[in-house]
Structure formats: C-alpha cells, structure tokens
Automatic annotation (TrEMBL):
<comment type="similarity">
    <text>Belongs to the RLP family.</text>
</comment>
<dbReference type="InterPro" id="IPR008271">
    <property type="entry name" value="Ser/Thr_kinase_AS"/>
</dbReference>
<dbReference type="InterPro" id="IPR001245">
    <property type="entry name" value="Ser-Thr/Tyr_kinase_cat_dom"/>
</dbReference>
<dbReference type="Pfam" id="PF07714">
    <property type="entry name" value="PK_Tyr_Ser-Thr"/>
</dbReference>
<keyword id="KW-0472">Membrane</keyword>
<feature type="domain" description="Protein kinase">
    <location>
        <begin position="916"/>
        <end position="1200"/>
    </location>
</feature>
<keyword id="KW-0418">Kinase</keyword>
<keyword id="KW-0067">ATP-binding</keyword>
<keyword id="KW-1133">Transmembrane helix</keyword>
<dbReference type="GO" id="GO:0009742">
    <property type="term" value="P:brassinosteroid mediated signaling pathway"/>
</dbReference>
<dbReference type="InterPro" id="IPR000719">
    <property type="entry name" value="Prot_kinase_dom"/>
</dbReference>
<dbReference type="GO" id="GO:0009416">
    <property type="term" value="P:response to light stimulus"/>
</dbReference>
<dbReference type="Pfam" id="PF13855">
    <property type="entry name" value="LRR_8"/>
</dbReference>
<keyword id="KW-1070">Brassinosteroid signaling pathway</keyword>
<dbReference type="InterPro" id="IPR011009">
    <property type="entry name" value="Kinase-like_dom_sf"/>
</dbReference>
<dbReference type="GO" id="GO:0009791">
    <property type="term" value="P:post-embryonic development"/>
</dbReference>
<keyword id="KW-0677">Repeat</keyword>
C-alpha cells in the first residue's frame, strides 16, 4: 500500500511534466508557424502556382496543422530544420528577419524565384517573439532579382553560417565582414563593383575554401590573395579588372589552390617568363580572354604538373610555336589555346596527352600543316576544334577518323582538300554529334547512309565547299539532327520531304545551290521547332507551301531568288517570332498581306522584284515604335548594300553567313554583277532588332498601285525604305518627315505627284535618296541632305526645280497653273518679251567681246583657256569647267570659292608642288595626300590630292564640292577651290602653318612647342565649336564621320580648325569599293555602335570628339601598343576613372600648374560623357559647348564669346553662318 501511494504522486508528477512539455512544444510549434506566416505575408506577394496555399493559421478550417507538414518545410525533433522553396516562382520583396525567429533553422533555399528588393534595408515583419540566435548553416538565395548591398546585419547575426550563395542577382556591393565560419561564398553574376568588397573578399577569406566572384563589375588591378590560406577554388572571371599580372600571384598563393580563373578580364603582361612556381596543386588554370602576351608559354608552367584544364584562349597576343613541353602534363583533360597568334605546325609531342585529353581547341591561330598521325591514339578525345587556321591535306581521313571517341569536330576555314571525308568519319567515329567542315575545299557527294552510322548527330555544317549530288533523304534517320547547313555548294535535285519530318530540326540552311522542284508542303508536320529556313538562290518552283504557317517558332525565313509563283499563303500573322522575311526575286503575285503587320517581331521585310499588286497595306506599320526582345541574337549575317542603282534591283540583300568566306561571297553572281555593292558582315545582337518597328522595308519592282500610306511615316526606326518601280500615285506623305533614322529612301519610277515635303531637309541620316521618274512638282527643299544628291535622283519630274536642277520660276516653285488663265497668258507674254530682249542684249554683248578679242594681239603665253560652263550644279560663287580632249589639261582652271584664286589653274598647282613631289607632301590621310603649294605671289595653300576614283561620279563630286565650298566658319578649314582633271580630284584649302593637333601632341621631336593648358583648352573649344556648327547650324547638317586629332589643324595663333568635313560623304558618293572601316572612321576614334550598324550619326562624331579631348588631356595617342597593348586610350582612361586614379590620366606637363587642376577634372568629366558606350546618353555638341560655357564663367579666357545656349548659335555674334 505504501509503495502504491508513492507511485501515484510520482505518476501524477510525470504526467504533469509531460503535459507541460507537450504544451511547450505546441507553443514552440505555434511560434514557428507564426514566424513562417509572417515571412509569407512580408515576402510573398504573388504565388502563381499556389505552392504555399497550405500555409494557414491553425484555426483555419483548411490548415495543415503543424508547420512540419507544410510545403517546403522539413523538421527534426519537431523543430523546423530546413526551408526549401526553390523553383516555386514566388514573387515579392524579400525580408529575412522573420525567419530569424526559427531557432533550429539550419538550411534556407529560396533559389530560382522572383524575390526582389534590397536585403540590407530590413523592415521588421513583426515576428511573434524576439528572434533567437541564428542557427543557419547554408543559405541559397541565388537566381532571384535581389539588389542593393549585402545584408550586413543578417550576416552578423548568423555567425555560424558555412555556405552562402547569392549568385545571379543584381547586388551592387557592401555587407562585409563575412561570418568567420564561412567556407563557401558564391556572389557570381551580380553587378558588384565595390573595390572594398573585392579587397576584403581576398584578404578576409581565412576560412573560405570556395570563392566565386565571377561575372561582376570589379575594376582595378588584380589583387593578390596570399591571405586566403584555405581557398582551393577562386573564380574572378568575367570582370573589368585590368593592369599587369602581379608577379607573385602564384608563388604566394595557398598550397590548397586547385582552381584559378581570371578569364574575361583585361589583364595584360608578358607571360613568356612568368614564374609559375606556386602552382603545384593547380588542376584548373583559366587565364583566357585577357590581353596576355609573349612569345610562347614559359617553361615554369611545367611546375603545374597536376593541371587538368589549361585555357589561354582569346589573348590574341600570345605568339610563337605551341610549346612541346605541354605534352608532359600527364593529367591534362582540356587544352585551349584558341584565338591567339600561334604559328607553325601542331607539335607531335602534344599527342603524349592522348591518354587523358578530352578537349583540344587550337582554333583561330595561324597553324599550318595537318594533325600529326600520332593523334590517332587519342581514344578519350571528345572535342577537337582546329577551325580558322591554315591547315591542309587529308588528315581528316587519315588521322581524325581514327579517333573513335570524338563527339564534336570543328574544322571550318582551313584548306582541307580531297573527297568528302564524311563516309570515313561516319564509319570510324559513331559518337559524333557535331560536324563542322565549312569553308574548305571538299568535293564529292553526301553519303546516303550517313545517319545509319551517326545516330547521335545534332549538327551537320558543310557550307562553302564544292559538294555535289543530291540531299540524301536518309538524313531523316538522324532523329537528333537540329541544324543542317549545306549552303554555297553545288547540290541539285529536290529537298527530300522526309528531312522536314525531323522532330528536333531548328535550322535548315541550303541557300546558293542548284536545288529545284517544289518546296515540300511538309513543314513542321512532326514538330514546330524550326527557327531558320534559308533556301534562297536556288531554282525552286511552285508556290510557298501553306504548311510554313504552322512553324510558329520561325525567326528567319528566306525563300528569295527562286522561281516561286502564286500568292503568299494566309497565316503569316500567326508567326509572332518571325523577324526576317525575304521573298524577293520571285514571281509571287496577289496583294501584299496585311497580316505581316501582326508579326510583332518583324524587322526585315523584303518583297522586291515580284508581281505583287494592289495597294500597300497600312497595317504594315502596326508595330511601329514597339519594343521587342533580341530574338535574332547570335545569327551571323552579311548585308550586301546595293549601290549600283537600277542595275541590281532592290536596296540590298541580307544573307545567312555562317562559315562563308567573304572572298567567296564576293564571287557570288548577285555580288559579281553589281560592281558597286558594298559588303557588311557581323553577328546579330540585341540592338539588331530592339525596335519592333521595321528597320528594312523593300517593296520595289512590283506592280503596287494606290497611294503611299501615311502610316509608314510612323516607323521611326526604319533605316531603308524602297518603294521604287511600282505604279504608286498621289503625294509623298508629309508624315515621312518622321522617319528620323532613314538612311536610304527610294520612291523612283512611280507616278507620284505634288511636292517633296519640306521636312525632308531634317532627315539628317539620309545617305541615298531617289525620287526620279515621277510627276513631282515644286521646289526641291533647300535644307539638309537633299540638295547634296545629284540631279539624276530628281530627273524626269517635269515640274521639279531648284538645286540641283534648274532654278525655279515663281509658277514652278508654287505649282501655280494660272498661266492658263487670261491674266496668266498676259503675264506669260510679258515674261516672254522680257526674255527675248535679254537674249538680244546677251547676243550683242557676245559679238562685242568676239570683235574685241579678234583685235587683240595673240601674244600672251599664259593665256587662260576659256571654256563653257559644265552641266553640273549651277553656282553663283564658283566656276565649273569641262575638260576637252583638245585642250592641255594643265591649263584647266579651278572651280574656286575665293576671288583671289579666280585665275588659278592646275598648271600653277602642279608647278607649286614640284609635280606633286614627295618633298612637298606634308601629310597622308584616309582620303588622300596633302601637299604644300607655294604660289608665285608668295601665298601658300594646301592641296589635297584625292584617292583614285576611276573617273566615276563627276556629278556627285561637283555637287558635294559646291555644298562644302559654301560652308564658312571660324573653326572650319575653308575649301578654297577644286579641280577635276581626268581621273584626278584636287581640293585646295587654306594652309595651316602649325599643322595638325596630332603632330603637335604626339610628335614633339619634330617640333619645339609644348602646348600648355590654356592653349589646349582653346583647341578643345575651337574644334567643338566647328563640329557643333556642322551638326546644328550648317545647311545641310553634316556628320563628319572621321573626327580625329589629325583632322584638327592649327594656324599661326594655334587656333583650331576642323578639316575633312564632308569627305566621308564625298567618297561614299564616288567610290563604293571602299571598306566600311574607312567610311566610319579611324581606329581608336570609332564609336562602339559603329561595329553593329551601317549608319553614321552625330553621336558617333561626339564619341570621336571625346577621344580628341582625351588626347588633349593626356597627351597620349588613341592607340599605342607600347602604352596600352591591345587596348586603347579610351578603355585605359575609363579604367583609371573607375579606380579613382584620374590624376594618372593627365599629361604631366599640365599637372605642374595646380591652378588648372580643377579644370582638368571638369574637362575630363565632359570627355567621359562624350565617350559613353550608349549613344543616347552622350551629349550633343551644342550641349558640350554649353558645358564649356558654364566652365568659362570663372575664367579669364573668353574662348566662347558669342556662343548662345538659347539660340544654339555656334558662330560669333559678328559672323554669319552660310
């Protein structure tokens, strides 16, 4: 009984204790549920898939009870231990403070959502109780949209954290120090640029073993990381770091370091003698895509005997032969030396790597010979890329075919000859997935049973060879085939319908063959993966297959230059990804489909040279001004601009250009028959089609009727519009003045009436214009680019008048028909009588002159040859002369713009330059040689002898000269006259005693003048004023296109004069065989966007001016390999600015005077604005002048007197612009 009494109270006590513990556990569970709900309320604004729908209050009827049962929650011992919400598409402003109330939470995984916001800006989410000490060990917030700085308070509270992944966000910096226990830190793919964060990460990383800071925006030199004693993997690739490679980088590195990548920066230095002594444990060394140089690789690299990956690709400056000692790396799996200047043959010793080598990339060098036979032993090699070299022979058959492990084989742009090696490859290399043999010298047929031996084949790239035969239907057996490119070969026959059933087919490219028959109506029957269909320049017949409209993923379609007939099938409006549609040079008929306007990504529509009829649908402009994504990014293209007029119909052709040699394209019939065609090549990028609105629309050479829709004027991004050679009527829409980016506009050979809109004078980018063969009337606009085009572009319009045609009478200029009325007839009679009287007076005066000359003794040995006026542009200030075969060319007079030179002849210039001798030559530029000519009266002029033009473009030359000669400004070198003698073109300029700014700054050994800051500032302002006048006050507005220091000339007082303005446009009009680079500027001065576009802009000139201003500030050349290596002045200066080392930019001569230091920084700021990579963020030259004006307020140097910001008048108040 006593024992029983003792047990009972003890049981009661245990029960009470159990109930208490259960209550406490329930309370804790309730607290954790409340914390999770607080996190949900604060951070999850959108849950599109209802992933957290089960997270509810405990009293909710649909609650799931304990939070341990909630989605994404894992518990241990009844406590929340892990929270994994990855990939749930949750959206909201992320707040982590509520989760700190979960005392047992060790793992937090929120990756692959849409959380955003600044983690450092904590806003309390009101957790149910005071947060306990953070127990988090692993945190993964990667692949969200977080911004701002790192969460300092969060990192501080979670002192035991071991792994932190913040990659793939938009973080900018800050937030250190890191928890002392941290061993893994991944902050890659953000926008981090905080130098303090970088330095701390590489000095405060005592326990970190994995550190990834790649793909950010860190600048400055590459820091050493000797204090990272535990780090084994360090990735600093894809940043903006520059400077030379630290000499002790590896010798002081941690012995634990196994992976080091600094790829994709701007690091320079000669590594041919670099000390690799500290790399004994390295397995991955990736220094690719920097600016490293040297003759070969250093022998000390042999210390890295454990390397598995060695990547030195894309440095361009590494040269010499490939080192044979690389064959000693017994564990090497990847060797990449692509994109350098290695020469010679591939060393046989490299085959010693065959036991382990998986990837070998030696592409884009200058290697010769073939692949040594010993490489046939490489049984583990999966990727072999030897493209873009000068390899030759039949090593594909004799060596490569023995490497049975190969999966990727790339050999384009070599000189591989012989019969098509595909049969041998297929038989011996059954694992091949990619075969690229483009641009070689292969012939033979494509084997019919290719796919039976290559079941894994994904890409078959064989363009620009000499393959013949037919396309084998058995290609349909390659069920994994994604890309087929057989273009530019000699194939014939039909496209096998079976090929179109390939389930994964993305690219079908077979242009420029002899294929025929109808295009099979089987497109996208088995799948809709097809994106590229380019089968132009063949002999296909029949119609466009209606099945094409099922291919909803099509991006680039070219069926041009075939023999297609019929109408365009309905349904194209469903192709919302369609960006490029080329149907030109066929016999298609019917109306132009209005549904093309529904294609929201369509930027290139070419329908020229067909039989389309009806009106132009207004719906084509439906997408005007809309913005789209970069849907055609990454496509290699060539654009052949037609500058041969009616010889070659259409404005130009866009070609798919993967693995095609430019020289081979130049032999293509379309190019060969159009001798004036200019070729542009490149890669489509995001900017290529960001507009939504079309950039190219060609409907020429059809039978279109009706009026031109005014809605086309809303297509503000249009670069090329060709409506020529149709039957269009009505007026040119005034709305066309809204085509602000138009470069080529052809409305010729129609029946258009009315006047040319006056607003056309504001189309500043207009480079090609033709309204000939219409019924236009009235005066040609007298402003802008219009008057610079030759008369032929306005010809056969009986009612047009004005420059460059005949002067306008009152009736012609107004289009008045009152002469048919009685009053008009009377007025006409009066004018006729006055004209007759004037003619009679002229005849009498001529007789008097003749009689006077007959009475003159013919004794003068220097008699001027009197000639008739040429049929070029009329001018009131110049005289243009014809060249007669019966006259001595040396006595041909110059067309002059200054009275003192009225009697100057070619003979005088020839004599004054000693026959244009080398001694008289004072400079050579992009457009010709410049000579100093001292005339008999003692005066000196400069004569520019333009490049050889083969006698082309007399009208164009005269038109341009008449325009340029009238342009007068205090900071422009005046054109005094010009002369045409056979194939010679001479321009006479005012001579500038002090030569060019280029020589004055950079060739100090030749001169004894040091330009102080006051003088340089005067030159900067003067050249800016001249350029601003060309852009904003000159009529027509002129884009210089080649602004550089050698085109800034200095007179006796070191005042600046801009020269060569209008020259690029002149050469464009005369010689269409020039390279694009010559037309767009000089290396070092060219705006970055010019490498992606064929259109010059004023903002491109602004960029070039920024380079000139930087030259004045630094005294350095834009390109100087001894100073910048493979980089340039602009990149170097931007790097200095980012590193807060601006004082290193300035010429030491300028920094001697402390009083001008502030001005130097102010002018540098203006230069940086001009050099912005984004054109729309650059100032105009008016704004540059305004900034100079503001800086002058406290200055005693009145370089800007007369400049008015309000009126945008670039001239001095005492001068008038012409």
């Amino acid at each position: 009984m006593g024992a029983a009494r003792t047990v009972a109270p003890l049981a009661v006590l245990l029960l009470q204790l159990l109930l208490h513990l259960m209550g406490a556990g329930a309370a804790e569970a309730d607290d954790e549920a409340a914390a999770l709900l607080a996190f949900k309320r604060a951070s999850v604004a959108n849950d599109p898939h209802g992933a957290l729908a089960g997270w509810r209050e405990a009293n909710s009827t649909s609650a799931s009870g304990s939070p341990c049962a909630w989605a994404g929650v894992s518990c241990a011992d009844g406590r929340v231990r892990e929270l994994n919400l990855s990939g749930m598409s949750l959206d909201g402003r992320l707040r982590l403070d509520a989760l700190l109330a979960l005392p047992a939470l060790q793992s937090l995984d929120l990756r692959r959502n849409a959380f955003h916001g600044n983690l450092a800006a904590h806003h309390t989410a009101q957790p149910p109780r005071t947060p306990s000490l953070c127990a988090l060990l692993q945190v993964d917030l990667s692949s969200n949209a977080l911004n701002g700085t790192l969460p300092r308070a969060f990192l501080k509270s979670c002192a035991g954290m071991q792994s932190l992944n913040l990659s793939r966000n938009n973080l900018t910096g800050g937030g250190f120090p890191f928890p002392p226990s941290l061993s893994t830190l991944d902050m890659s793919r953000n926008m981090l640029s905080d130098a303090g964060l970088l330095n701390y990460s590489l000095t405060g990383c005592h326990g970190i073993q994995y550190l990834n800071l790649s793909s950010n925006q860190f600048t400055g030199g590459l820091p050493e990381f000797a204090q990272c004693s535990q780090v084994s993997i360090l990735d600093l690739s894809g940043n903006l770091m520059s400077g030379t490679l630290p000499g002790r980088l590896l010798t002081t590195a941690s012995a634990n370091l196994t992976h080091l990548s600094i790829a994709g920066n701007n690091i320079s230095g000669d590594i041919s003698r670099y000390d690799f002594g500290g790399c004994t444990n390295l397995t991955v060394l990736d220094w690719s895509y920097n600016r490293l140089s040297g003759m070969g690789l250093p022998l000390t690299l042999d210390n890295c005997h454990r390397l598995e990956t060695l990547d030195m690709s894309g440095n361009k400056l590494l040269s010499g032969t490939i080192p044979v000692f690389l064959g000693g790396f017994q564990q090497l799996k990847k060797l990449a030396l692509a994109g350098n200047n290695f020469t010679g043959e591939i060393p046989d010793e490299l085959s010693l790597l065959c036991g382990t080598l998986v990837e070998l990339d030696l592409s884009s060098n200058q290697l010769t010979g073939g692949l040594p036979a010993s490489f046939s032993k490489c049984r583990s090699l999966k990727l072999l890329d030897l493209g873009n070299n000068q390899l030759s022979g039949d090593f594909v058959v004799t060596v490569i075919s023995k490497i049975s492990s190969l999966r990727v084989l790339r050999l384009p742009f070599n000189n591989i000859t012989g019969t098509n090696p595909l049969p041998t490859l297929a038989a011996e290399c059954p694992l091949l997935e990619v075969i690229d043999l483009g641009s070689n010298l292969l012939d033979g047929e494509i084997m019919p049973n290719l796919c039976s031996s290559l079941p894994s084949l994904r890409k078959l790239i064989l363009p620009n060879n000499y393959l013949n035969g037919t396309v084998p239907p058995s290609l349909s057996n390659c069920s994994n085939l994604e890309s087929i490119d057989l273009s530019f070969n000699l194939l014939h026959g039909q496209i096998p319908p079976e090929v179109l059933f390939l389930p994964k087919l993305i690219d079908l490219v077979m242009w420029a063959n002899n294929l025929s028959g109808e295009i099979p109506d089987k497109l996208c029957s088995n799948s809709t993966t097809l994106e590229t269909l380019v089968i132009s320049y063949n002999s296909f017949t029949g119609g466009i297959p209606p099945s094409i409209t099922r291919c909803v993923n099509l991006i680039w379609v070219s069926l041009a230059a075939n023999n297609l007939t019929g109408s365009v099938p309905s349904g194209f409006g469903n192709l919302q990804k369609l960006a490029i549609l080329q149907l030109h040079k066929n016999s298609l008929s019917g109306p132009v489909p209005a549904e093309f306007g529904s294609c929201s990504n369509l930027i290139w529509l070419d329908l020229n040279s067909n039989n389309f009829s009806g009106t132009i649908p207004t719906q084509l402009a439906a997408q005007a001004g809309l913005i789209t994504g970069g849907i055609v990014s990454g496509k290699q293209f060539a654009f052949l601009r037609n500058e041969a007029g009616n010889i070659c119909p259409g404005a130009g052709v866009l070609f798919e250009f993967l693995d095609i040699r430019p020289e081979r394209l130049a032999q293509f019939p379309t190019v060969h028959s159009c001798g004036s065609t200019r070729i542009y090549t490149g890669m489509t990028v995001y900017m290529f089609n960001k507009n939504g609105s079309m950039i190219f629309l060609d409907l020429s050479y059809n039978s279109l009727t009706g009026t031109i829709p005014a809605s086309l004027g809303n297509m503000t991004y249009l670069n090329v519009l060709n409506l020529g050679h149709n039957d269009l009527t009505g007026a040119i829409p005034d709305a066309f003045t809204g085509l602000k980016l138009i470069g080529a506009l052809d409305l010729s050979h129609n029946h258009l009436t009315g006047v040319i809109p006056a607003g056309f004078g504001s189309l500043n980018f207009l480079d090609d214009f033709d309204v000939s063969n219409n019924n236009l009337t009235g005066e040609i606009p007298t402003s802008g680019q219009i008057i610079t085009f030759p008369a032929s572009r306005f010809g056969n319009n009986s009612g047009l008048c004005g420059i460059p045609l005949n002067p306008c009478t009152h009736n012609a200029s107004t289009g008045d028909s009152s002469q048919h009325s009685p009053n008009g007839q009377r007025k006409f009679l009066e004018e006729f009588v006055l004209l007759a009287v004037a003619l009679l007076v002229l005849i009498m005066a001529t007789l008097v002159v003749i009689l006077y000359k007959l009475r003159r003794p013919c004794e003068s040995k220097t008699e001027e040859i009197q000639t008739g006026y040429s049929d070029s542009l009329p001018s009131s200030t110049s005289i243009s002369w014809k060249i007669s075969g019966s006259r001595e060319p040396l006595s041909i007079n110059l067309a002059v713009f200054e009275n003192p030179l009225r009697k100057l002849t070619y003979s005088h210039l020839h004599e004054a330059t000693n026959g244009f001798s080398s001694e008289a030559c004072i400079g050579t530029g992009g457009f010709g040689e410049v000579y100093k000519a001292k005339l008999k009266d003692g005066s000196v002029v400069a004569v520019k002898k333009l490049m050889y033009f083969t006698g082309q473009g007399d009208r164009e030359f005269t038109a341009e000269m008449e325009t340029i000669g009238k342009i007068k400004h205090r900071n422009l070198v005046p054109l005094l006259g010009y002369c045409k003698i056979g194939d010679e073109r001479l321009l006479v300029y005012e001579y500038m005693k002090n030569g060019s700014l280029d020589v004055m700054l950079h060739e100090k050994a030749k001169i004894d003048v040091n330009l102080d800051w006051i003088t340089r500032k005067k030159i900067a302002v003067g050249s800016a004023r001249g350029l601003a006048f060309l852009h904003h006050s000159c009529v027509p507005h002129i884009i210089h296109r080649d602004m550089k220091s050698s085109n800034v000339l200095l007179d006796d007082n070191l005042d600046a004069y801009v020269s060569d303005f209008g020259m690029a446009r002149l050469v464009n009009a005369l010689d269409s065989h020039l390279t694009v680079s010559k037309l767009l500027g000089t290396p070092g001065y060219v705006a970055p966007e010019y490498f992606q576009s064929i259109i010059c802009t004023t903002k491109g000139d602004v960029y070039s001016y920024g380079v000139v201003l930087l030259e004045l500030l630094s005294g350095k050349k834009p390109i100087d390999p001894t100073e910048f290596g493979d980089s340039n002045l602009v990149d170097w200066a931007k790097q200095m600015v980012k590193e807060d080392r601006c004082n290193e930019i300035f010429d030491p001569i300028l920094t001697d005077t402390k009083s001008c230091e502030l001005e130097l920084y102010q002018y540098l700021k203006i230069a940086c604005q001009c050099l912005d990579d984004h054109p729309n963020r650059r100032p105009t030259m008016i704004q540059v002048m305004a900034m100079f004006k503001e800086l002058q307020i406290d200055s005693d140097n009145n370089f800007l007197d007369g400049f008015s910001i309000d009126s945008a008048n670039i001239e001095e108040s005492s001068e008038k612009s012409v």
